[in-house]
Specification:
alpha/beta, Rossmann fold, 3-stranded mixed β-sheet, 21% helix, 24% strand, binds S-adenosylmethionine
């Protein structure tokens, strides 16, 4: 097991390349780059919550949508994935600089794409897609679900992580992000001209299951330390149904 996955560190390093970091990034010397969250283990907790141990990544083709600083891209490569593609919009100014900085430390080489995944001309399909913290940044969740289904191989897996609506209903509900109303999170309307910076819709659990069913996925909610510590976040494993 690589030291990348260790739940301890020596020193917290701030902005080693002069950039702010979103991910708290492990380094091979046992230090960590400080990220945006007070909890330095938030990404490691999410990684463990994905429950990938039961689904071997070995040799798999992985797409990390909204890769940001690349924690999950690097984790997949160190866990044995065959090839990993990281994609993020240029509207994240530290991308791909931070990701490339971290990859150099870990001596891994993902394919790195700067683009909106909704518009990118992908040339291959994937066995695993990470879609972590991206759903609520999209203006069209339904078109995105259709595209992600198309990008997966038969029986391919989509790992979806999202802020949830806290409205408890057996019916599928999407709560709007708003700067006006006290909804679960703000919209940040001032960023609407960029891609992937404002918030739009937060599903409840039924809405995620319904979305999965609409686009021919099975769907399981994954519970773990991450969802225990962050109960307003949901983690789901969607599997593409064979036609
Ligand atoms: C909340 S961060 C999550 C980062 C990482 N996946 C994680 O879970 O820690 C959302 C990331 O998705 C990116 N993003 C949002 N919409 C995108 C799009 N349409 N195409 C590519 N990247 C996008 C943002 O720029 C940002 O880096």
């Amino acid at each position: 097991m690589s030291s990348f996955f260790e739940a301890s560190y020596n020193n917290l390093i701030h902005r080693p390349n002069g950039r702010d970091w979103w991910h708290c990034m492990p380094l091979p010397n046992g230090n960590r780059i400080a990220g945006a969250h007070a909890d330095c283990f938030v990404q490691l907790k999410l990684w463990e919550n994905l429950d990938l141990l039961t689904f071997d990544l070995a040799g798999k083709r992985v797409l990390d949508v909204g890769a940001n600083d690349g924690f999950f891209t690097i984790a997949a490569l160190l866990a044995g994935a065959g090839k990993v593609t990281a994609i993020n919009t240029a509207d994240r100014p530290s991308y791909p600089e931070n990701l490339l900085f971290a990859c150099k430390q870990w001596n891994v080489a993902p394919e790195v794409v700067v683009d909106d995944f909704q518009a990118h001309p992908f040339e291959s399909s994937y066995e695993v897609i990470f879609f972590l913290g991206v759903l609520y940044h999209l203006e069209n969740i339904f078109a995105a679900a259709k595209l992600l289904h198309k990008l997966l191989n038969d029986r391919g897996r989509l790992y979806l992580e999202t802020q949830m609506s806290l409205i408890d209903s057996p019916l599928p509900i999407y709560e709007a992000a708003s700067d006006t109303y006290p909804t679960v999170a703000k919209q940040y309307k001032e960023h609407l001209h960029l891609t992937g910076r404002s918030n739009f819709l937060f599903p409840n659990e039924a809405a995620v299951h319904n979305l999965a069913s609409s686009y021919d996925f099975t769907c399981e909610r994954l519970m773990g330390v991450y969802t225990h510590h962050y109960p307003s976040r949901g983690v789901f494993r969607l599997t593409k149904l064979m036609k």
